[in-house]
Design a protein that fits this description.
By secondary structure, this protein is of the alpha/beta class. The protein contains twelve helices and 14 strands.
Length: about 350
């Protein structure tokens, strides 16, 4: 059943899809409330570049179940381009120079070609819809269609379709990627649970290299700040361990470390644990705790040198979570935010 592969609202939130209640500026497709076996699959793949306002759309391709290309166009971002991501996007300055199509033109076109009963298909489709600033409630995400964890499109296509994609040196082809996503979804519809489990093909006995070991191999330095008990696990790596006992102390020492010679600085803010203790908290307590974390992260971010990557991870246990029913508040707190600090005041997050 096609509807069985469609993400629920809870799953969409879990996988980072931006829904109308958190993205009121997104356009919404004209859509039915419930899809059925007659609902057409429409695959979408986008390419993005990095602008001074974060990731912005540079190409979009739309393919139907017959592999017919319904739409394919280059798109000129509104903001100044910092990096074309040519290695992955295939987009270059020469390609975009003559382009006059903007995001608003793309949105208008998509609204006209996507059927009201359509099911959108894509690989990590949340990223494509974010670039399109568009919401559609019926989505199949091939990145998590075959496993409980996300797998890349190239690997899935090789394993299940016996095809090689993304092989050239000129970046990805969004028509090829959209077609691959469509074929994966159609394969899942045909064979369902009869498909064999995905295997990466990598040997289980391969050594695992931590990010700290990789940095040390490059003759660079890492710094970790945490309570004594947690620092023990880092002693085997070439890491500068700094003992801290409070979040306030972590913030202060992290700011100092960021002005040192470390290529990677990691700090643990423990106040978030108060929301993970299994107790139902008043909204005022939740907002106060998150507000303090936000303030401290803001100060740490401000202390970072320009052109640095900032990653903030809110972690909670995800073992045996059923996103279809009764997903708890604490489970939904698990999030990862990343942004590059440029030579301006505000961070751009993705």
């Amino acid at each position: 059943m096609r509807g069985d592969l469609v993400l629920t609202e809870g799953q969409m939130r879990w996988h980072g899809y931006l829904l109308p209640d958190v993205s009121p500026d997104f356009i919404q497709t004209n859509h039915v409330d419930v899809v059925d076996e007659d609902s057409p699959l429409i695959a979408i793949d986008c390419e993005m570049c990095l602008t001074c306002n974060g990731q912005e759309l540079t190409r979009v391709s739309v393919v139907n179940e017959k592999h017919e290309v319904l739409y394919d166009t280059l798109v000129k971002p509104y903001n100044k381009i910092i990096h074309y991501n040519t290695q992955f996007s295939g987009i270059t300055e020469r390609l975009l120079n003559p382009v006059t199509i903007r995001l608003a033109d793309v949105q208008k076109k998509l609204l006209s070609i996507i059927p009201t009963n359509a099911i959108l298909v894509g690989q990590s489709l949340n990223g494509d819809l974010k670039a399109l600033k568009m919401y559609h409630p019926h989505c199949i995400d091939t990145s998590s269609l075959f496993t409980t964890y996300k797998v890349g499109l190239k690997a899935l296509t090789k394993f299940y379709l016996k095809k090689d994609i993304q092989c050239g040196n000129d970046g990805h082809n969004s028509i090829e990627d959209a077609t691959a996503s469509m074929d994966l979804a159609l394969l899942k519809l045909r064979k369902g649970n009869n498909l064999r489990n995905y295997q990466s093909g990598r040997k289980n006995d391969l050594p695992v290299e931590s990010i700290f070991q990789r940095i040390a191999a490059g003759k660079q330095k890492s710094t970790v700040l945490d309570v004594p008990g947690n620092l023990k696990k880092f002693y085997k790596d070439s890491v500068d361990c700094i003992t801290v006992m409070t979040d306030s102390e972590t913030k202060k020492k992290m700011k100092k470390a960021l002005n040192g010679d470390s290529s990677l600085v990691c700090g643990h803010l423990h106040s978030f644990k108060t929301l993970m203790d299994g107790i139902s908290h008043e909204q005022e307590v939740i907002e106060s705790t998150l507000g303090k974390i936000d303030e401290r992260v803001g100060e740490i971010y401000a202390a970072m040198p320009n052109n640095s990557l900032c990653i903030v991870v809110f972690a909670s246990s995800t073992q045996d979570i059923d996103m279809d029913v009764n997903t708890s508040e604490s489970e939904l707190y698990s999030r990862c935010f990343a942004g590059i600090k440029y030579e301006k005041d505000e961070p751009e997050t993705t």
